[in-house]
Amino acid sequence: MGAINIMTIIAAKYISFLVNIILVLVNTKAGIKAITKNKILYLFSKPIENTIAAK
C-alpha cells in the first residue's frame, strides 16, 4: 500500500511538471503577443498615469 502511494505522488508531480511546461510554452507564445500589445498600451497609458499622479 505504501509503495502505491509513493508512485501516485511521483506520478502526480511528474504530470503537474509536464502540464506546467506545456502551459509555459503556450503562455510564451501568448505572452509574446501580449508583450507587444502591452508595449503599445504602455506607451499610451504612461502619460495618463503621470497626469493622474501629478494631481
Characterise this structure.
This protein is mainly alpha-helical and 55 residues long. It has a domain at 22-55. It is built from 1 helix and no strands. It has one helix at residues 2-54.
Topology:
Elements: H1 2-54
Give the radius of gyration: 22 Å
Distance between the termini: 66 Å
Average pLDDT score? 82
Please indicate the percent range of residues in DSSP E strands (runs of 2 or more): under 5%
Number of strands: 0
Helix content: over 70%
Report the uncertain regions. Answer: none
Gross geometry: elongated
The helix/strand order is: H
- With helices defined by DSSP (H or I, 4 residues minimum), what is the helix count? 1
Major beta-sheet overview: none
Class computed from helices, strands and strand pairing: mainly alpha
Transmembrane segments: 6-26
Keywords: Membrane, Transmembrane, Transmembrane helix
Which properties best describe this structure?
single chain; 55 residues; mainly alpha; 1 helix; elongated; transmembrane helix; membrane
Brief account:
The protein is mainly α and about 55 residues long. The protein contains 1 helix and no strands.
